[in-house]
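I hope you will forgive my troubling you with a question about protein structure. The record follows directly beneath this note:
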Amino acid sequence: MKDLIQNNAASLEVQVEEVEQVLSFNEIKRDYGSDMNDGNPSVYCGSYHKYNCGSLYGLWLDLTKFSDYDEFIDICRQLHADEDDPELMFQDYENFPRQLYCESCMGEEVFDKIIEYADLSDSDKEAFDDYLALGRDYDIDAFHEAYQGKFDSEADFADYIISECYDLDSMMGNLSFYFDYEKYGRDLFLDGYSMGDNGHVFRDY
């Protein structure tokens, strides 16, 4: 009987300890909530059960505030600790590429890619957004290999290529003043290069 009482007491202590580990809504908001103004990648975490019951209860979470994916999922579950086994529903997202968003299936690999994206400089984020908008695969290494820089126009990029690869003055003399950079630029972008909406240029090969 004594052993049974001790075992029950130990079990109760574990249960109490588990309950105490669940943070309140305000604590989660304080430690992990997104202010939506700092440009950090964020998701709105609700649950399918609440949504199906007509409730949008949830919280915007700043993904950069988590040490890893496991902590992220743990806090999401604590946010919906009133459900026995919450089916998490990421109802919206901000400040990371659309290709990485999934309403129900954010796995560890995707989480790590979002953090990798967040670690890019602002200029690299803009360039990478152009890269993805051109239909390229989500691959930051391939992006860096293909990236040529930011230019005002196709003609501006043509001028850069000519200055890097040729010496028109030596090759053409005074005729170099009549070189058509706009036409050469058009030819470059017909086969070999692409330019995004923000002026970032990438190799196609």
